[in-house]
Specification:
By secondary structure, the protein is an alpha+beta fold. Helix content is 22%, strand content 40%. The chain has one domain: Immunoglobulin-like (Sandwich). Strand 1 and strand 2 form a beta hairpin.
């Protein structure tokens, strides 16, 4: 998986560890997200469409002593004050849009590998990184609901007060 772009010092990561699921989410500026994809061949119109919304650099870890953790990013939701929760855009949704726009295959592959997967199962000690597109305007405070499964049980955690610069 491609590494997320270098992060500005002033950007705060939002972190939690619950039931062995460790999550770190760092909001990226518009320029950080855009430059990352422009450098990988994504055309400017598609780069702008992606980067104008909130983009988070995510690191997800299974820190359980035993047992897998799985998730489906399409089950994650964002909400702002006074609005119903909306699902995050999945990698598959973005790739469908990029293909319809005629984005070259090499740029779509680079985009795909840099995103949080739509679903993933990882064993103790495993970790992944990727970017996550949240359906929220920049500079708007929001909460993000993460859902995952471990030991046959569903878990939910709301991260509150996130904001992308």
């Amino acid at each position: 998986m491609l590494a997320a772009p270098a992060l500005a010092q002033e950007t705060d990561a939002h972190e939690f560890n619950r039931d062995g699921f460790s999550v770190s989410l760092t909001p990226l500026s518009h320029d950080q997200a855009a430059s990352f994809y422009i450098a990988r061949g994504l055309p400017r119109p598609e780069t702008e469409r992606y980067s104008r919304r909130c983009v988070l650099a995510a690191t997800l870890r299974n820190q359980r002593p035993s047992g897998a953790i799985s998730f489906r990013s399409g089950e994650w939701e964002a909400r702002t004050r006074g609005t119903p929760a909306r699902p995050v855009r999945t990698r598959a949704q973005w790739l469908e849009e990029l293909e319809a726009a005629g984005v070259p295959e090499a740029a779509r592959i680079a985009f795909e590998w840099a995103q949080v997967p739509d679903q993933h199962e990882f064993q103790p000690g495993d970790w992944i990184q990727g970017m996550l597109s949240v359906p929220v305007d920049r500079e708007t405070a929001f909460d993000l609901k993460l859902r995952w499964r471990a030991e046959g049980r569903d878990h939910v955690h709301w991260l509150t007060g996130l904001r992308c610069p």
